[in-house]
TrEMBL record:
Residue intervals of the DUF6160 domain: 6-62
InterPro entries: DUF6160
Native source organism of the sequence: Acinetobacter seifertii
Stated name of the protein: DUF6160 domain-containing protein
Length: 317
């Protein structure tokens, strides 16, 4: 970090005595710590949450659809309280991830750089079972609610995992979703805020070994009322030794929205939807297909696929 002063004042009042520590400039701090900037080591084996919501407060430009609504990630009957866990081989007090923070002002364009790396004994990240819901205005909060002295966060559930009237479940995960890392090349990201010298807000690096490594994949259902489309999702790098490389992938914000993509040709990957079933398994109809029971359509997937100069944009309207 350039051209900065870190000033630490220690005021000890005893009788009339006052003591002050001298300011440390960047050179002195570097000599004391062996580095520029700051490094944070964060230890958190598990992060639990009740509900996480993305809320549109005004709908769309229509007299019929201008109320607020939200997409909510929350628990389900399989797992009422979802969590994000760091997968470790053994119980450890080592940091789960590290953040190295520094600032610069190259060519008069200041920015802050945050380099995020995984802990030495972290092998992956696990998402425990969860569901994605669509919630109406009566089940989501808005900024106006926060100003009320008696404010209490709204919930999509009336009790337990029973949803309120109007709340619809869209996606259901009933098993752990494990994101496994390549141990010798763990995922990392470099975030720049301000005048990003790397030209995008976030650059990714490292490699993923797999997502849902079990043969059947992770059980997922696209919900439609009392039924839906169910399958087992699985993703892996085609080369088991190097995995799926994240180098070349990026994310950022431009005037029209959030962008995500990659530069050049990605490494190859295998992806599959296993045991795809539409509707309820074994359900029969006496008037359709000679009363044959409903069954799996089989599995669908790609092997050795890659993407070239992929770009996706997310924006509102």
């Amino acid at each position: 970090m350039k051209n900065k002063n870190i000033v630490c004042w220690l005021l000890l009042t005893s009788s009339s005595s006052v003591f002050a520590m001298q300011p440390l400039d960047d050179q002195s701090l570097s000599a004391a710590t062996g580095q520029n900037g700051l490094t944070l080591g964060i230890q958190a084996d598990k992060v639990k949450f009740n509900q996480v919501a993305l809320i549109d407060t005004n709908g769309i430009a229509s007299t019929s659809y201008n109320s607020k609504a939200g997409l909510v990630i929350a628990g389900n009957s399989t797992n009422p309280v979802p969590s994000i866990e760091f997968i470790k081989a053994t119980v450890s007090t080592n940091p789960s991830f590290n953040i190295a923070i520094d600032t610069d002002a190259g060519a008069g364009k200041p920015f802050v750089n945050l380099a995020v790396t995984m802990g030495s004994d972290v092998n992956g990240i696990r998402l425990t079972p969860f569901s994605v819901y669509l919630a109406p205005n009566t089940s989501v909060s808005s900024p106006a609610d926060y100003a009320v002295s008696s404010y209490a966060p709204k919930s999509i559930f009336s009790s337990g995992t029973t949803v309120n009237t109007g709340v619809k479940e869209l996606v259901r995960s009933t098993g752990n979703l494990d994101i496994n890392f390549v141990q010798t090349n763990k995922p990392r990201l470099n975030i720049q805020l301000g005048h990003a010298a790397q030209y995008v807000m976030v650059k990714f690096g490292g490699a993923l070994q797999s997502i849902c490594s079990a043969a059947a994949g992770c059980p997922i259902t696209l919900v439609s009322d009392t039924t839906g489309a169910s399958f087992g999702f699985k993703f892996a790098g085609t080369n088991a030794a190097t995995g799926f490389l994240l180098d070349g992938f990026y994310a950022g914000v431009d005037p029209t929205g959030l962008t995500f993509g990659n530069t050049g040709v990605s490494s190859k990957f295998d992806a599959s939807l296993n045991n795809v079933t539409l509707g309820n398994l074994a359900t029969q109809s006496t008037t359709t297909f000679n009363n044959l029971p409903n069954g799996s359509m089989g599995s669908f997937g790609v092997t050795g696929a890659s993407v070239t100069d992929f770009k996706m944009k997310v924006s509102g309207f």
